[in-house]
Specification:
about 425 residues; alpha+beta; 4 domains; five-stranded antiparallel beta sheet; globular; zinc; zinc ion binding
């Protein structure tokens, strides 16, 4: 049996089936597990540079260089994306590592029973023991980040850090399957801890992105401040560098609403709204723009006598606007609360979403459906809105060869059975 040492490839030692499901997809991982259990396993060897080479019996060869994510692994099969051979290679590596650790443990036990003083080298060393919890992502070196990420991505990450960024750190066991960094626009899971090549991001790039570096820097500060805290918010960069917005244009919106109310329609408040939206858009405060837009739509709903109008909604939106302005004025909170610098749309990788509920509001022929969804991988929750109209029913075509009066009579003889309309014959 080939001797596998965990410290040579820590990125592979912690790639569990759950982690591989995040990197690939559940169906492909299940297929890899089935084929591995059926005996389709490769011969593994580590080259001098710690590249894992997996040679399958059908001639397929997979080469997994150290420090590279699964998306950059070379395989001789015809697949253009992540294939089952890469997954089987990772699963077989973990299995051999576990077998090597079990055999070494049994050998050490026999030696301990034979002699009270165990000989040198008989202890259960980390080199052959089964994989334990990986080290913190904060222990990843700058050299490891430089190897994984291109210089342009590292420079982009450094710019975001200097501009100020709030990252929420969740350690393994604190409701998370692995060390996790929640950024404003992405969530990074470090399945192998400091082996950042195994990190998985839910952005469209999936791995080896600037979010991986930002999460590592946040973990470094968290390890220095509170190494045992299960959850910790970390402010990257100088809090004073965060952008602040003047409150005057937004307070003018609230003053106009209090002065004119909704009875006179949107026109009296339009100048204040336009000035506030322009100010928020110029500062890139995406979430303030959305709040102001919702407030405008609420006011317009009353003027249109919409059934979706509710006075409580306007009160909630006004309260949200005041709270965002108040909290956004705190040092370092402008981005997290006002959405400054956050794009209107963020391209994401595939998601596994579960619907928590839905509500449809009716206003004449218009409908608005609100879906509340949860991301099963990151635990994030989101609400999706969809506006649509009920299509007008097409006019019924007259029955062939029957006059209008005959068609009306035939329609009266229609019977509805279990929701299906059937034309009665010979009645």
């Amino acid at each position: 049996m080939v001797t596998i040492q965990a410290q040579l490839r820590p990125d592979l030692a912690h790639l569990s089936p759950e982690a591989l499901t995040q990197l690939a997809n559940a169906g492909l991982v299940k297929r890899a597990l089935r084929e591995q259990a059926a005996g389709y396993v490769p011969e593994l060897r580590l080259e001098d540079d710690d590249t894992l080479v997996a040679a399958f019996s059908d001639g397929i060869t997979t080469r997994w260089p150290k420090g590279k994510p699964i998306t950059q692994v070379q395989c001789s099969c015809v697949a253009t994306a992540i294939c089952r051979h890469r997954l089987i290679a990772a699963l077989q590596f973990r299995e051999l590592l576990a077998l090597s650790g079990s055999g070494q443990e049994a050998e050490n036990t026999q030696k301990t029973d034979a002699s009270a003083a165990p000989p040198a080298g008989a202890s259960n060393s980390p080199a052959t023991a089964a994989p334990t919890d990986p080290p913190s992502p904060g222990l990843a070196s700058d050299a490891a980040l430089s190897t994984l990420l291109p210089a342009a991505l590292l420079a982009r990450a450094e710019q975001q850090r200097q501009a100020g960024l709030l990252v929420h750190i969740h350690r393994r066991g604190a409701g998370e399957p692995c060390d996790t960094a929640r950024l404003p626009a992405a969530t990074v899971r470090y399945w192998a801890g400091a082996a950042v090549e195994a990190a998985r991001c839910d952005c469209v790039q999936q791995s080896a992105c600037e979010h991986v570096a930002l999460g590592v820097w946040a973990f470094r500060e968290a390890d220095a401040r509170a190494p045992h805290a299960p959850m910790l918010p970390v402010q990257l960069g100088s809090a004073d560098a965060a952008v602040r917005l003047p409150a005057a244009p937004y307070l003018a919106v609230l003053a106009a609403l209090l002065r004119h109310g909704v009875l006179q329609g949107p026109a009296p408040c339009a100048p204040a709204f336009n000035l506030a939206v322009s100010d928020a858009s110029g500062a890139g405060a995406e979430w303030l723009v959305q709040t102001l837009t919702d407030l405008q739509q609420w006011q317009a709903a009353y003027a249109a006598r919409s059934a979706r109008y509710s006075a409580e909604d306007g009160l909630d939106l006004a309260t949200e606007l005041v709270l965002r302005l108040h909290l956004g004025a705190q040092p370092g909170q402008a981005k997290a609360v006002l959405g400054i610098g956050q794009p209107h749309e963020v391209p994401l990788d595939r998601l596994r979403l579960m619907c928590l509920g839905a509500r449809t509001e009716r206003d004449g022929a218009e409908r608005r459906t609100r879906l509340v969804l949860a991301d099963l991988d990151t635990g994030s929750r989101m609400a999706l809105l969809h506006d649509w109209k009920v299509p007008q029913p097409a006019p019924a075509a007259p029955l062939a060869g029957a006059p209008a009066s005959g068609a009306a009579g035939a329609a009266e003889r229609c019977v509805e059975i279990e929701g299906e309309v059937c034309v009665g014959r010979g009645v």
